[in-house]
């Protein structure tokens, strides 16, 4: 059972949802997601669950947190749910980011709501003593304030970009990363709009940088049965991979991105 | 009168055909093709052997990667899908997927799709004699592939021809899955029966579309898709009701089932077994809950044998 303990606005139409759980089938890892039924019992609308990647996880408090933006019917319903509401939640689901980057130089590049899954990842990397550089971008500074505050609690260098005003720079997370990229990092992680990921991937591969991305794809079931979220791959056998099972985290260059 | 208790209830159904073939199920629930993978994904959530039967994801002669994404969209009380039969092809199905089903104790049905009569012949030949299978479901109704599937399913003569060919080759149990995208489904259902089908499954999804009003373009990459979920249930119940009066073979009824009450409704209309599809995508262990709900209905109405209600609404 999952119960809402926080569901509050932390930016323009951006909400933080914290759930308390009784038990989980396994410990959630960064990059994984939970599939939440936002319609309440006996309601058919919306029918499908909504996948949300993990923003933060605190096992000692039995607490898992998500950041979401109200963009459609499902997230609108979710945003109106009160503390104490019980939710039907499946998870953790999907394949996580790999974490074998002890003492290395790591770049995190996040755009918009794609920043959310990078925070729990950054916390884990910090524990591994990684040399963390975080590049965050959004359309407007107001969408970055919450994330800036959270990331600044970690041992990391933070750089910000927005389209509306000059922060570290004025522009996208990609522009920001390219501008600051001097030493080749050992590994990068990125999450954001697919076009941004395609551009990050292109630059990274050009510079022989390895890393992982987390993609967003319209999902049906979230458990691998319906094949709605199939991704074309660039691997030799061209075999499709499911964003919900083999993903949402993929290696740079693994799946075909819509640039 | 002695009050029935849960342990007294008999949920078994037997899909006995005119050809003296029979598919015996411990309860009427059959997973709908394409909503349950090939079993192992759902098996992580519950013991699928507790269901009546399992239908595999649709297979074609050659492997295919499916349609472009987005392949799924939501509508009121329903979903649109245009997966496009992504599957590894029948040879890989036989070598890789069939052996994985060996541990299951419930009947397994292989769903087959084709682009030509020859495709169905090839598929029937390759699956003939496969001991892991209790039967095949001939999909003459997929709305998401061009030049096949539904094109056959809307033409009674084609339904007859393909079913007859498959019947000549395949000696196991044959279910023909029919499309609702037709004026009178009893005609295609009768054609399947006359050609030797052991049972008719209805309905596949309804041809439908959704337009993204911001992009001002169809939301699905494939433009059109198939509508499923609670929204289609009343259409499916009526088609089962219509066919029950005319057919002499059992009906596998499906479309938008998500509760025990829905299963009962399909059976009252005339279905011997009932498919569960879209609900599995939302609630992986829905089948278990639905069986409980069927039992509760039987207790409430003091029905000992579930099969006694088949067609009772007529």
UniProtKB/TrEMBL annotation, chain A:
It holds the Pfam family DHODB_Fe-S_bind. Binds 1 [2Fe-2S] cluster per subunit. Binds 1 FAD per subunit. FAD binds at residues 50-53, 74-75. The keyword Aminoacyl-tRNA synthetase does not apply. Its cofactor is [2Fe-2S] cluster; FAD. The keyword Cell membrane does not apply. It comes from the Bacteria. [2Fe-2S] cluster binds at residues 221, 226, 229, 244. Residues 1-99 form the FAD-binding FR-type domain. Keywords: 2Fe-2S, Electron transport, FAD, Flavoprotein, Iron, Iron-sulfur, Metal-binding, Transport. GO terms for biological process: pyrimidine nucleotide biosynthetic process. One of its GO terms (molecular function) is 2 iron, 2 sulfur cluster binding. Belongs to the PyrK family. This is Dihydroorotate oxidase B electron transfer subunit. It comes from Halanaerobium congolense.
TrEMBL record, chain B:
The active site is at residue 142. The keyword Flavoprotein applies. GO terms for molecular function: dihydroorotate dehydrogenase (NAD+) activity. One of its GO terms (biological process) is 'de novo' pyrimidine nucleobase biosynthetic process. Its cofactor is FMN. It comes from the Bacteria. Pathway: Pyrimidine metabolism; UMP biosynthesis via de novo pathway; orotate from (S)-dihydroorotate (NAD(+) route): step 1/1. Binds 1 FMN per subunit. Its EC number is 1.3.-.-. Its main location: cytoplasm. GO terms for cellular component: cytoplasm. It is an enzyme of class 1 (oxidoreductase). Keywords: Cytoplasm, Flavoprotein, FMN, NAD, Oxidoreductase, Pyrimidine biosynthesis. InterPro entries: Aldolase_TIM, DHO_dehydrogenase, DHOD_1B, Dihydroorotate_DH_1, Dihydroorotate_DH_1_2, Dihydroorotate_DH_cat, Dihydroorotate_DH_CS, Dihydroorotate_DH_I. Belongs to the dihydroorotate dehydrogenase family. Type 1 subfamily. NCBIfam families: PRK07259.1, pyrD_sub1_fam. This is Dihydroorotate dehydrogenase. It comes from Halanaerobium congolense. The lineage of its organism: Bacteria, Bacillati, Bacillota, Clostridia, Halanaerobiales. The gene is pyrD.
């Amino acid at each position: 059972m999952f119960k809402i303990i926080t569901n509050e606005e932390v930016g323009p139409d951006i909400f933080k949802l914290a759930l308390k759980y009784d038990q989980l089938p396994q410990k959630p890892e960064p990059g994984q997601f939970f599939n939440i039924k936002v319609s309440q019992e006996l309601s058919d609308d919306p029918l499908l669950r909504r996948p949300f990647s993990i923003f933060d996880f605190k096992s000692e408090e039995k607490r898992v947190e998500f950041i979401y933006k109200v963009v459609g019917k499902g997230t609108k319903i979710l945003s109106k749910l009160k503390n104490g509401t019980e939710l039907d939640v499946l998870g953790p689901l999907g394949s996580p980011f790999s974490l074998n980057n002890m003492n290395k130089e790591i770049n995190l590049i996040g755009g918009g709501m794609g920043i959310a899954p990078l925070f729990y990842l950054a916390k884990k990397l910090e524990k591994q003593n990684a040399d963390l550089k975080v590049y965050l971008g959004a359309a407007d500074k107001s969408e970055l304030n919450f994330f800036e505050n959270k990331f600044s609690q970690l041992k990391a260098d933070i750089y910000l970009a927005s389209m509306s005003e000059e922060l570290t720079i004025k522009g996208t997370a990609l522009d920001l990363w390219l501008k600051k990229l001097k030493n080749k990092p050992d590994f990068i992680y990125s999450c954001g709009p697919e076009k941004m990921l395609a551009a990050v991937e292109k630059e990274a591969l050009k510079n022989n940088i390895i890393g992982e991305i987390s993609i967003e794809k319209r999902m049906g079931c979230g458990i691998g049965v319906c094949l709605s979220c199939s991704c074309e791959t660039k691997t030799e056998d061209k075999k499709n991979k499911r964003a919900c099972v083999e993903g949402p985290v993929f290696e740079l260059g693994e799946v075909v991105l819509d640039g | 009168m002695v009050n029935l208790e849960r342990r007294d209830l008999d949920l078994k159904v037997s899909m006995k055909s005119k050809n003296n073939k029979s598919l015996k199920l411990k309860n009427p629930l059959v997973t709908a093709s394409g909503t349950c993978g090939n079993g192992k994904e759902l098996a992580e959530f519950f013991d699928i052997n507790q269901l009546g039967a399992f239908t595999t994801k649709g297979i074609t002669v050659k492997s295919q990667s499916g349609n472009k994404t987005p392949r799924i969209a939501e509508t009121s009380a329903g979903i649109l899908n245009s997966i496009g039969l992504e599957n590894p092809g029948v040879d890989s199905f036989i070598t890789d997927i069939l052996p994985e089903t060996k541990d299951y104790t419930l009947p397994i049905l292989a769903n087959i799709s084709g682009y030509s009569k020859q495709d169905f012949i090839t598929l029937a030949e390759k699956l003939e004699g496969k001991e892991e299978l209790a039967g095949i479901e001939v999909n003459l109704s997929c709305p998401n592939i061009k030049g096949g599937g539904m094109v056959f399913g809307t033409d009674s003569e084609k339904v007859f021809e393909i079913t007859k060919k498959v019947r000549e080759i395949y000696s196991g149990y044959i279910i023909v899955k029919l499309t609702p995208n037709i004026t009178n489904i009893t005609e295609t259902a009768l054609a399947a029966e006359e050609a030797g089908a052991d049972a008719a499954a209805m309905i596949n999804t309804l041809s439908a579309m959704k337009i993204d009003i911001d992009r001002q373009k169809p939301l699905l990459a494939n433009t059109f898709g198939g509508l499923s979920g609670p929204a289609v249930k009343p259409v499916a119940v009526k088609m089962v009701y219509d066919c029950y009066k005319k057919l002499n073979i059992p009906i596998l009824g499906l479309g938008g089932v998500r509760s025990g009450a829905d299963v009962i409704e399909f059976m009252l209309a005339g279905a011997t077994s009932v498919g569960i599809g879209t609900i599995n995508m939302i609630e992986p262990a829905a089948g278990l809950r639905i069986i409980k709900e069927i039992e509760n209905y039987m207790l409430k109405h003091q029905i000992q044998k579930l099969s006694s209600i088949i067609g009772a609404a007529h």
